[in-house]
Sequence to fold (128 residues):
Amino acid sequence: MITAVTYGVKISVESVYRKDLSNPENSVFFFNYRVEVENTNSFDVQLLNRHWLIFDSLNPSREIKGDGVVGAQPVIKAGDKYAYVSGCDLYSEMGSMRGFYSFMKLDTNEIFKVSIPKFNMITAPKLN
Fold:
């Protein structure tokens, strides 16, 4: 698990190759990733937006932006955690993702960015 803390918000990410959803013969490799967001601050925050940079070792990089995560813009109370699972397809056997979330500090409406640490997505055969 890869972890980073920005402005008191701890982001932890782990990925897993999904052989059952992949099609190597057609250069499609699918990965799930689980993100845990922990608010270590003394105030509540809301996750507003995501911004991902996806590196695919043999293909052009992609940039993904959007509201919230998996259809939600969760409020994370002081000391609480929020977790979700999502997925990413690559067209090569190795890649990585990194990015940031935009959050709002609910007591002041201040917007701030929280780094999502770079994590690798590598098929099992490439790990050998």
User: Anything to note?
Assistant: The chain has one domain: 2-127.
